[in-house]
Design goal:
Blueprint: E1 7-13, H1 17-28, E2 35-42, H2 48-55, E3 60-64, H3 69-78, E4 85-89, E5 93-95, H4 101-109, E6 113-122, E7 137-139, E8 145-147, E9 150-151, E10 154-155, E11 166-168, E12 175-179, H5 180-185, H6 198-208, E13 212-223, H7 234-251, H8 254-277, H9 281-296, H10 298-302, H11 322-327
Helix pairs in contact: 1-2, 6-7, 7-8, 7-9, 8-9
Length: 343
């Protein structure tokens, strides 16, 4: 690239001293020439901010007065950041050399591409994809997200099977590269999500605006995953089920959305029963709470639905049920899904 766009790598922190001390050095040593590092803090009560200030004085620190969550936190921080591209990077991420250049080059050369992610490998199981993003995100008929390299809870070993750059439906928030103009045009994250699935909601809106989302295999990062909120935490269950229902309502046509939500209520009921059978009553109650929230805020979230010109871009949309494929047809790998069932 002759003209190097300015890139702002923005890490949102909340009591993350341990992760910053462990992983910030790899990020700080990035070789991209036109770069700014920013720590956005969500009202941490540990010494993570003072640690960065003392050890990395060139990193700009922007503090929120309260903990606004992942979604609201980034919205407020990025209002104060000027760059051509934002890189929203989790604090529990280790990057590899030259991880920025291939993604920026891809975004600069692919028409209509406004956001992308690198390959996401599990930190504690290197050689396998990581759950949150893997090799690019997709979505099924009923709003369930999945990835190349991750079907439901099953992740694949990285054998180079997804070493091709491609267009996807959504890019992970663990390492989200996004053009600042696209971020602003889409109004960033939905702050009401607080955390979980806000990046899928944002990518869906961008695609409805006609933009494209990509995956770049030449860039690799290692992600701990669940660093701030444990994977078995009922609060995570609540946020995932709640935000997914709201996301479907916001981004589908009224009639289709009504049908999807109707089906989802039954599928979620089965999920709650499964949690009860597995001895996890708090997770089952979390699903009930998610449904209660959804219906109590039905009209508020309906008002967030926005129409965009044109038909949008549905590349990466799977026209079947990934749940049915996984549990009934025993499909455990993305490559086993039929190409003709994708838009």
């Amino acid at each position: 690239m002759k003209n190097m766009p300015k890139v702002a790598v923005v890490i949102l922190n909340w009591n993350g001293r341990f992760f910053l001390e462990k992983f910030l050095p790899s990020v700080y040593n990035s070789t991209y020439p036109n770069i700014e590092f920013i720590l956005g803090d969500n009202a941490s009560t540990d010494d993570s901010v003072s640690y960065v200030a003392e050890n990395y004085p060139s990193i700009k620190i922007i503090c929120n007065a309260t903990n606004l969550g992942f979604a609201g936190g980034y919205n407020e921080i990025l209002k104060q950041v000027e760059a051509d591209y934002y890189v929203l990077l989790n604090s529990d991420v280790e990057v590899t050399p030259n991880w920025i250049e291939p993604v920026i080059e891809y975004l600069e050369t692919e028409p209509g591409m406004v956001a992308a992610q690198p390959k996401i490998i599990a930190m504690h199981q290197k050689g396998f994809f990581e759950h949150a993003g893997a090799a690019g995100g997709f979505i099924d008929l009923y709003g369930y997200p999945f990835c190349r390299g991750r079907m439901m809870h099953v992740v694949e070993k990285d054998n180079g099977q997804y070493n091709d750059n491609c267009e996807v439906f959504w890019a992970t928030g663990a390492a989200l590269f996004i053009h600042s103009d696209a971020w602003k045009a889409a109004d960033g994250f939905d702050a009401d999500f607080f955390a979980h699935m806000e990046e899928i909601d944002l990518c869906w809106r961008l695609k409805r605006m006609g933009h494209r989302i990509g995956y770049v295999a030449q860039s690799t990062i290692y992600h701990v995953g669940g660093g701030t909120l444990n994977t078995s935490n009922p609060q995570k269950t609540y946020l995932n089920f709640r935000n997914n229902l709201v996301m479907v309502q916001k981004n589908t046509h009224l009639a289709l959305g009504f049908w999807i939500i109707f089906v989802r209520l039954w599928l979620d009921l089965f999920a709650a029963i499964k949690f009860l059978i597995d001895g996890k009553p708090r997770d089952a109650w979390a699903i009930s709470r998610a449904h209660q929230f959804f219906f109590l805020h039905l009209f508020k979230n309906a008002a967030k639905r926005k129409g965009y010109p044109g038909k949008g871009n549905l590349t990466g949309f799977y026209k079947r049920s990934v749940i049915w494929g996984f549990y009934v047809n025993k499909i455990r790998k993305f490559a086993n899904l039929k190409v003709e069932n994708f838009k």
